[in-house]
Amino acid sequence: MRTQVAIIGGGPSGLLLAQLLQTKGVDSVILERQSRAHVLGRIRAGVLERGLLDLMQEAGVADRMQAEGFTHDGTLISYGDEMFRVDFKALTGHAVMVYGQTEVTRDLYEARDRTGGEVIHNVQDVTIHDANSDSPSVSYTVNGQTQTISCDFVAGCDGFHGVSRQTIPADLRREFEKVYPFGWLGILSETPPVNHELIYASSDRGFALCSMRNAGLSRYYVQCDLSDSPENWTDDAFWAELKRRIPSDQAAKLITGPSIEKSIAPLRSFVCEPMCWGRLFLCGDAAHIVPPTGAKGLNTAASDVHYLFEGLAQFYATGKTQGIDAYSERALARVWKAERFSWWFSSLMHQFPDQSGFDLRMQQAEIAFLRSNESAQRAMAENYVGLPY
Ligand code: APR
Ligand code: PHB
User: Which is nearest to 295 in space by CA: 16, 41, 13, 48?
Assistant: First the structure.
């Protein structure tokens, strides 16, 4: 089999890239290790930056998002019983869209079906060959048979545990990592959100986040120990802990109900440099991870896809390679800024096990400064709505 761009991974990065390429008549094949149902069963964050909204439009997949998503002009930040609002719209002229990553992925799969593009599911043993040549190929096994796709380029969109990053020789790769000493225990419940905007809550019992998917579906998180397990938490225990961490007027109006999902996610910052090797390009979680505070994971994947798409579109239209040659540098420049914001927001809002009294006062002073200083709020808002591509 032959295609122009072999895409490894059918998560949001791979699917979005495929749809954008399709608008320029560039064909691709997506190889996905899991079934479609499995991919669509994952629960991830749901805050979309304006850059991703524009990309969804460009890819022709924005209709349902425009109809069903919720525009958020600001967010709430609380510490103990105090709460203030950062007004994104007033400070930056932009807003964000609350629309679940699962829904983004579903819309992309449906668009792929409509445009007749190939997605091969349940593939195993994906191996990238000759990435550092002009004629790379990808082999894989499906239903016990080994197949090979020859291509012009390989897009490694296969997440943190994929094969693409590992294909770059270890001596050419530099990896940067920070593991945080806590996790997020999250639940999904069919209850109305406690507030129409998100609440990022700092408290002496640890961080909490009140988020949502829609008017009848809420997503809540509490910071927990890494050694903890969801089985240790009854729904009642979760709600009680959440209420202790958010302002009492919010706790009083919180509507609780049975959880329909409960899980713990660790927090990690990770970046691989460079994000390419020859004709292999990494996008999204394959190259970097952010802690979820600020919801930059999907959004940073989207900016990678934008830069790669631009480079590939230029190559297929003109034969010029400036765009693909500059891909890693352009993508990383923005990735590091998203890493910085996610690290800053995580460091500001969580309780750290080895935190001294001084460290705690520094956090409190910084939150107080953010509350009272418009420039600080604008810097936060600019990062939250998404730095320009
Ligand atoms: N072969 C084929 N597919 C693979 C392989 C492999 N060896 N390894 C992993 N995959 C698939 C996974 O099953 C997954 O569906 O690659 C896909 C990668 O998808 P994601 O992990 O969702 O990563 P990405 O598409 O970059 O999405 C960006 O934003 O909010 C964040 O972490 C969140 O998923 C999110 C990300
Ligand atoms: C979520 O809704 O899951 C979510 C929202 C915002 C974040 C992280 C997660 O910063």
Answer: 48
Residue closest to 205 by CA, chosen among 347, 350, 357:
350
Cβ of residue 45 lying under 6 Å from some atom of ligand 2 = yes
Distance CA 376, CA 369 (A): 7
In the residue annotation, 72 being an active-site residue is answered as yes
**Residues 123-159: pLDDT tens digits?**
999 999 999 999 999 999 999 999 999 999 999 999 9
pLDDT-above-90 percentage for the chain = 98
Calculate ∠ Cα 137-143-147, nearest 5°: 20
Nearest to 140 by CA among 154, 130, 152, 125: 125
User: Is 327 labeled as catalytic in the residue annotation?
Assistant: no
Question: Which DSSP symbol is given to 254?
Answer: P
Residues 43, 44, 45: CA angle, nearest 5 degrees: 140
**pLDDT confidence bin for 44, thresholds 50/70/90:** confident
How many residues can be counted in the chain? 389
**Burial of 336 from C-beta contacts in 10 A (0-12 / 13-18 / 19+):** middle
pTM of the model: 0.97
Whose atoms come closest to the Cα of 16: which ligand? Answer: 1
338 vs 45: CA distance, rounded Å: 15
| Joined tokens for residue 183 | 């996790």
- For 220-266, the pLDDT digits (tens) are 999 999 999 999 999 999 999 999 999 999 999 999 999 999 999 99
Query: Annotated catalytic residue: which of 296, 306, 307, 327?
Result: 296
